[in-house]
Amino acid sequence: MNRRLLTVLTIAFLIAGACSLLVYRLVGNRVTTAKKQTTTRVVAAAADIKLGTVLASSDLGSIEIAGTPPVGTILKPQDAIGRGVISDLYKGEPILETRLASLGSGGGLAATIRKGMRACAVKVDEVVGVAGFVTPGMRVDVLISGNPPGAANSIDGPEVRTLLQNLEVLSAGTDIQKDTEGKPNKVQVVNLLVSPEQAEVLSLASAHTHIQLVLRNPLDTATGKLPGTALSSLFGETVKPAAKVSTIAGKTRKPAPLMYSVVVFNGSQRSEQKFESHEEKQ
Rounded to two decimals, what is the model's pTM? Predict the structure, then answer.
């Protein structure tokens, strides 16, 4: 064999061997790194869990998470058992502290009330409840109608005003689950999530005025001060007050007649006489 050809083949084999070794080491390092990556076993939902459910051991499972687990992930089942769910959980989903109520707060409606807020019940009928379409998770405004204090005989008639805006509906009747199909459901009571100050206002309004709920788009969070509307404004003009007629002892008192005076000078003498206007008599 030609010595030159043998030299070329030898060099080619050496280069191929070096490249193979380099590739092997690169791939091997990646495989080793992947094998050395730590995993953490965390608590997860064993099945779909609805809002308001108090967790039991049968509701819980576990999954492996590669790398660092999310902040607030529950690692021990005993840290989740007995706590209420404040947001729907799905099978295989890691359970976070933010999705559970505090220990001892129970489940149901109470578990969905955020810290510093209150659930205020409003009695409704089919019209007030927006024909049954007010369901948990919706956003509403609260309108009140009636006569303002001290204006029982107001010439403008009853008034309607927007009392509270952009309130979250916690429950419609005894249902605290969101209606995914949007089916109407007639209820007698709607619970709204309000602050303590708003709860006082809403309670007073429920006792002394007529309340109606107005459904709004959940994405529309804009609020503003509205002037309100009086009954007289619906007809385009304000009712003018009638002329006052005073009465004494049950009898109508006629207004005083219109008088005019005539002054007569006779030399140095001056005299004045008063006469009733003929126009008033007519």
Answer: 0.55
